[in-house]
Amino acid sequence: MRIIRDSLFIDPSDRGAVAAIGNFDGVHLGHQVVLDVARSTAKSLDAPFGVMTFEPHPRQFFAPQSPAFRLMNAEARAHRLEKLQVEKLYEMPFNAALSALSAQEFASQIIAERLGLRHVVVGADFCFGKGRLGTADDLIALGEKLGFGVTVVPMLDLGAGEVSSTAIRQALEDGRPRDAAAMLGHWHRIDGTVIRGDQRGRDLGFPTANMSISGLHPPKFGVYAVTVDVLDGPHAGHYGGAASIGVRPTFGENTANCETFLFDFKGDLYGASMSVALVDFLRPELKFEGIDALIVQMDADCAQARDILAALPHG
Fold first, then answer.
1. How far apart are CA 176 and CA 278, in angstroms?
2. Residue 3 Rama label (left phi>0; alpha psi -120 to 50; beta)
3. Beta strand pairing status for 209-212 and 257-262?
4. CB 182 within 8 Å of CB 161
5. Which helix (H) or strand (E) holds 224?
6. What are the chain's domains?
7. Does the predicted TM-score (pTM) go above 0.70?
8. For residues 95, 75, 110 and 101, what is the CA-based torsion angle, rounded to 10 degrees?
9. Gyration radius from the chain CA atoms
């Protein structure tokens, strides 16, 4: 997959794609329906299959002090889109200049002139242009005028309401990772680089791989059964584990992070890229009176997580 971040200086080979447009936070099942339509349209037109998205997320641009809300960072989103066979990822810098474009200016300058898209695919709730005043119907009319095709895909409803990033965030806040996964079409993952922590886990007999959750919507604080993909380095592979997400209240005031204990693993993961998939919520974060009580609970957590992971379908 090729990532294009500059629409002003674009290679001619990157023009003429069929592109799905949206933020695609989480790349959930509703997004995947849009992507499926774009992929099939690209095939029928013998054109590259592309996605246009925005970085930072527009909500992050307009309200930088608001609580973290993203389900995945830009790298995790790109990794997921590549798995879905996207060939061209147009990651548009969302800045003051882009946000000031009217719906007509966005369609003419970005879609038609700079990227030269042949066809675009959007969800029925798509809004664009300054003040989000442009609608999917407006895009259809502009496409007819400017020479690109438009397909609008209805919102996906699984029977319990429309699938949305908002509903997924709520499921994670409630400690319901399996409900989130049902809407995502995959486990919710925390992706990032393993960083150095306080190394308390090593002293307790549970060495953990620590990852920042800064900028991401925090799931319910507590302990989870997880599967782990180490994406690079000498220990690359798939593992089971237990992860604690939160502020570690037993040890005072701390910045929230994700600490994962990989089962049956020995080695150094500092600096490795890792992806932690939340499978089940085991218990909320607790403050223990002493280290011995914490170790007893961690033993119980790991045993429960092993049983949950052993019951997952494989293959």
1. 10
2. beta
3. antiparallel
4. no
5. strand 222-230
6. 2-153 (3.40.50.620), 188-310 (2.40.30.30)
7. yes
8. -20
9. 22
